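It is worth pausing here to work through a concrete case rather than discussing structure prediction in the abstract. The textbook approach is simple: state the sequence, then state the predicted structure, then interpret. We follow exactly that order.
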Amino acid sequence: MPILIIEDEPKTGDYLLRGLSESGFAVRLARTGRDGLALAREGETELIVLDIMLPGMDGWQVLEALRADPATEQIPVLFLTARDEVQDRVRGLELGADDYLVKPFAFVELVARIRTLLRRGPVREEEVLRIGDMEIDVLRRRVRRSGAAVTLTSQEFALLHLLARRQGQVLSRSLIASQVWDMNFDSDTNVIDAAVRRLRRKIDDPFQQKLIHTRRGMGYVCELEASAP
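Step two, the predicted structure:
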C-alpha cells in the first residue's frame, strides 16, 4: 500500500513524490485536504505525510476527519509543516498525529521517520507513561515523581521520554544520539553520558528508588530494579 502525501505547494509536493518514489516507496500525491481525505478513505494508504496549511480544508481538519472515521483512524500520520510553535506540535499530537517534522527538513530524516512509523504500525502512543512513582504526561511535557513536579529542559524531557517509552530496553549511546539530537556522535564522546548525568540529578538523586541505570559497555536503561535482599 502506498504513502499518501497531502501537500499544496507544487515544488514541495513534486519533490516529495520524486524523492520518496526513488527511495522505494509507492507514493500518491493530493494537492488539497479534501482530495487527500478522499484518497485516504479508499483504503489503499499505509501512511500519510500531511501539511497543515492547505486550502479549503486544512491539515488539522483532515486529521480530525481521519481519526473520526473507523476506516482511517489507525493510519499513521506525519505532519510536515512550516508551523514550528510548541502549541502547534502539542495540538497535532492531541489530535492524533504520530509524528511532527518542521520545514525546512532533511530528506534523510523524513525517510527515517517514515520507516520508523511503518515499523511501529498503527499502535498509538500512550499519553501518560508510569514507571514506579514517576509519571510522564507526554502531551503536556510534565514529569512528577512521588507527586512532586520535576522541571526538565526540552532536551532532558526528550531523553527521559525515549528511555521511558522503551522501558526495560538497554539503549546504546548512538541510538540515543540519533533519536534525541537527530545526529550521529562518535562512540567515544561523553555528550550522552553528560546528558544522562544531568537528567539523573533531577529524576533520581532526590529519591531513594533509582530508575535510570547504566549497563557498562552497552548503554542506558530505564526500569525498576528489584531491591537487594
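Step three, interpretation. The radius of gyration is 20 Å. The first helix runs from residue 10 to 22.
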